[in-house]
Specification:
Elements: H1 6-26, H2 31-46, E1 48-57, E2 62-69, H3 73-78, E3 80-82, H4 86-94, E4 98-100, E5 122-129, E6 132-142, H5 150-216, H6 225-255, E7 264-266, H7 268-286, E8 289-293, E9 301-303, H8 305-321, E10 328-336, E11 339-346, H9 353-356, H10 379-389, E12 393-398, E13 404-411, H11 415-433, E14 437-444, H12 447-452, H13 455-472, E15 479-484, E16 487-493, H14 497-511, E17 518-525, H15 532-544
Parallel strand pairs: 8-10
Antiparallel strand pairs: 1-2, 1-6, 2-3, 4-5, 5-6, 7-9, 10-11, 11-13, 12-13, 14-16, 14-17, 15-16
Helix pairs in contact: 1-2, 1-5, 2-5, 5-6, 7-8, 8-10, 11-15, 13-14
Length: 547
Amino acid sequence: MKRVSTSSQKQLLWLSTLYEIVREVNSTLGLKSALKIILTKATELLKVERASLMLLDPAEKILKIHLAMGLSPFIVKNTRIKLGEGVSGWVAQKGRPLLIQDISKDKRFRRKEGGRYSTNSLLSVPLKVKGKTIGVLNVNNKKRKEVFTQADLKLLAALSDEAAIAIQNARLYDELVRANERLKELDKLKSNFVASVSHELRTPLGIIRNILFGIRQEMAGTVSDKQREYLLLVEDNLGRLERLIDNLLDLSKMEAGRFELKKERGDFFKVVQKVIDTFQKKSEEKGVALGFSGSQNFPPTYFDQDRMTQVVTNLVDNAIKYTPQGGKVDVTLGQKDKTLFFEVKDTGIGISAVNQGRLFEKFRQLGNSPLHEKGVGLGLAIAREIVTLHQGKVGVVSEEGKGSSFRVTLPILTEEAFFLDRLSEEAKKVEKLGESLSLVILELANFEQMKGMGEVQAQQLLDQVVSVIRETVRKPSDIVASYKRGKVIAILAGADRQGAEALARRVKEALKRLPLELRFVIGTYPDENRSPSDLIQQAKEVLYGGE
């Protein structure tokens, strides 16, 4: 059996150790930890008492000790070596490793570099990134008073490569973090600027609109037909400018995370019908047929009526805008299981497959046809954000020259589902902001007796209780959403137990003249060491218990 030489064994040990070092460094977060691993392993493998890692300040062209082992804090803090000066300065300037067997015979060595030297041999290798020297790795004082060898130099050079990579990665990461922070700062400044300018523009635009109205009403004198035509043209463009400002304000809210919905029970059919009525004149003037189909018995659900009107308006307006004379736009409202869908289909110019993927991006302008009207490309981006906040989806199917079909789907929320949806939203907010959240449950102890008085009268009493609570809550974010089986639930966002108890007292006072036996159950986060999920579970038991 062939014996492995001592040098080969040593080389295998070094390679194995080097692999371990690389693995440790790659799994370590932070520059200081990575370099400490490298420096520790260098002293162990080379059996030295002292090691130092110096980094070059490119502006001052000076080497400073970044990390050291076996050196006094004074030396670490105060050592400054100019490029080209001494051993470290020579290695940094030349970019070449240096093995000195006898420092007393080497003119490059300067005694002030090291204090106590127990041997006359030392090693110094450059730290390089893409051929550029960024520092120096030094070791000296062999514990066995031995002279460094070429094998030692080779190992230290391998360690220096890993140190250089760690330093470069850390610097790149720091640069990325700083750039990201700067981008966030600039983005915040942009959002604040957009919001501020948009608000400032509203006042003069309102004044201009009022003046135009006064002129058209001939408050400043007789207006000819031609002048009236020009005034209408000005008002149309004024409307476009106001919509642009509204979109910019919405954008600033989206980017600041302040784009919130005010969901209420409503009839989606009426929302769509109102938008269709608004666009009938525009479509007739352009020669585009506008149709609407959908059941008037569409089930009521919970949604932000203003925001969904904005979505429907955007889609219908775009369909008419990009459909040539003689074409048609069909609007459909329907229901499938627990989902409602709203579709706008046109016979317009269509959208290419490439552009469909970019259609909902902010500030994206895709049109280049004679039918295209200039804008800032925010309408569809904002529409998608509104639909997403409703837990819905919006998509498009289109082919150039053959029209487009935009389809919006939204979940149909029951009263119970809406309540839990809002409770979950508020729970996430208060947990993130460290605020309080209270759940107030009002139980009508004599509910069964009330039903004996007649269903109509019992329902009227329940409605009166709900009405009183809604009038008593203090903030728009407070919600009263369910009154089943003689129980009424209220969500108090930002209210602690003291605030919830104050609400209960006010409600008792307001209802004291009614023939009701009231019992309140109050749950609060975090006053009672509960989690938001505990409140949600409590609400579910009230809403669905017994069914």
